[in-house]
Amino acid sequence: MTSLPQEIIDEIIDCVAQSAEHLSLLRACSLTSQSFRRRSQSHLFRVLDFGYPHPQDYSLRVERLHFLLRLLLERPELAAYPRQLILQPSFNRSRWMYENKTFHAVLSLLENLDEVIIKGVGRFGQSSGFWSRQAFVDKFWKPMIQPRLTTLVLRHIVMAPLELLMFCPQLTALTLICTTFAQPSNAQFVPLRPNRLKCNWGSETLHFVADWKGENGHHLLDFSNLSAFEYTTSAFRPLYPDINSFNNKLLREAGIL
After folding, report:
1. Domain range for residue 6?
2. Sign (positive/negative) of CA torsion 70, 75, 76, 77?
3. How many CB atoms lie within 10 A of CB 205?
4. Which of 12, 26, 173, 238 is the most buried (most CB within 10 A)?
5. Residues of the chain with pLDDT under 70
6. Residue 125: beta bridge partners?
7. How far is CA 82 from CA 76, 98, 178, in A?
8. In total, how many domains does the chain have?
9. Do 185 and 163 lie in a common domain?
């Protein structure tokens, strides 16, 4: 088997990654031989899911972060594999991470991390201390995430900071699912020019983001590079009254109409 060309082996591993039992199979493949290991590890380490704070014991969670940092320092080749980061910072047991130096050190080593999913956060800014909206943006989001972000997914967030979108010059794909935004405290921004835009159950949100302008009169969203647009609603959430005219405006700006 190992005499096969590496391209064929990689295709086999990619197929394994699509199977229902992909985790156990990929672990087995990574132990088969050196030719199988790299591609298997690239799938195994592709997603770092901090979306639910297991285990519940704080000391164990801290220990796991320290273990991950040691692993990346001892095996620097592994740092190239993670591409997607999943966060769910509404849990009280997970909020400590966003100002934790070990967590910041881990993220700084992930050279190819470019996709972030934030889910189930509820309402931003209800708690005091670090979890205030501005502190989250200033102490975690801007220094650790924004400069390299190309794909952002926001799910079920009430009053998300619009600042999450305002300084992402590399962002090409944006998905908003049942998410609303708060007015930003800072009107300065770098315009977004996404290639792909998806919005589920949130025509008011789509209007807000698309129509928002800074002090210089420029829109936050520039649709000139848009190549794919998907909007989903339901019978229980009627469309915004002028959604059709808005869609036509969007398509014209994208050069489609």
Report:
1. 1-44
2. negative
3. 21
4. 26
5. 1-2, 51-57, 89-95, 121-132, 186-187, 202-203, 234-257
6. none
7. 12, 18, 27
8. 2
9. yes
